[in-house]
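User: Structure please.
Assistant: Input sequence and predicted structure:
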Amino acid sequence: MAEQIATDPTLAQQLAAFAEKSYTDGVPAEVAASVRQRVLDVVGLCVAAHRLPTSAGAVAFVLEQGGNGQATGVGVAEPLPAAQAAFLNGVLAHSLDYDDTHLPSVLHPSASVVPAALAAAEAGGATGEQTVAAIAVGLEIAVRLGMAGYDAELGNSVFFEHGQHATSITGAMGASVAAALLLGTGAEGVANALGITASFAAGIIEANRTGGTVKRLHCGWAAHSAVTAAQLVKHGFTGPPTVLEGRFGFFEAFLRDQVDLAQVTDGLGTEWAVPGIFFKPYPANHFTHAAVDAGRALRARGVDLERIERIELRVPTAVVRTIGEPIEGKRAPETGYQAQFSGPYAVVAGLIGGSGLGVGLSDYTDELATDPFRRSLMARVDVTGDARCDEIFPMQFPAVVTIRTDDGQDRTEEVLVNRGGPQNPLSDAELTVKFQENVAGRLDDDATRRVQDSVLHLDRTDDVAAVLAPLRRFTSAG
């Protein structure tokens, strides 16, 4: 009888072992607390996104598919098939550019992982505690795979340099792990789910440059792929054990030879990235947030808007092309969506002040984007690169704002740490304010309280469907 040769576990098998152990034994308290906050954030975003025409299209699409009702689609009265619920909620979660961000990978992991996990939890009858653990693991794996493609010397993600949307690609992979755990596949099934999902993971970011609404689909399709892969594993499908590091595997396909495998395994199970993922306090491109905060600080110092002659917004040089070019367009956004990517608008919004946590959804409308007074202030804003900001980026997205008034005085505010990150975190109370603004006009006060209380104590429930039930019907069109 030939001697059997022992082999080291593959990367997928190592991730699967970590996933099963964390799912069975539980995750650290600070990780679980962070997950509960992220679930509240995501479901609030799903409600808020119903104001968009694309959301109506996503709802119509899933209703056309039919199938057995298994899980909650936010804003849909009847249960949907799990994969369709995951798709819809993933689309909604990412559509407002208000979902969380991991730095420096610039991933938005929760918008894929949370919708997939919630759908799988309902379909599989998992408890809230199991759901929290599965989400934690899914987020961790999504981030680690994203960081494997981060080039520190370049200061950017190799995925992005290749035109790929890392959020939906690694998000699908992490989400598949969460879904597989919640559907009871065990470690072997988790590895197979990764192997299958790698053939589904996709997303290109050309829409960021030349337009189109397809980016809003990315996290939905990632969540759909994840649940589908986990369900296929339950029906006997398998994936290659070397799906990640193999000659024709995930890393070769997406990153070629620019991959850092240590990011996948170093500290796995002892060092968690999840609590360090940045929440978004403002509904805009994350590069603009420090500009908002600088504007808010200058407003608090009593700057007279009528006396402003010039505003200089200094940011990391790599950010200028996104929020400052072409400057003529950034000074005169035509829509609320364009305003979300405008550095001049961000400073002005902070100076004027608004809703929510300082600037909210109601401050990014088509009407305000074209408001003559805001336009007059934006016309005075220059956006330039800054060497000090370059030293901090991309671990933070800093900004320095200097205002000159008509008396010749300069006032400067430096915001070198982003609000919502681990060095300046949002509390449960602040995230509740964000949630309440997001659901206002669609959930009544009782439903709002029920959802926020049950989600922030998600690990204490045995019925995930009951937690999500109030999200199926809205009180008005909002």
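The first strand starts at residue 150 and ends at 151.
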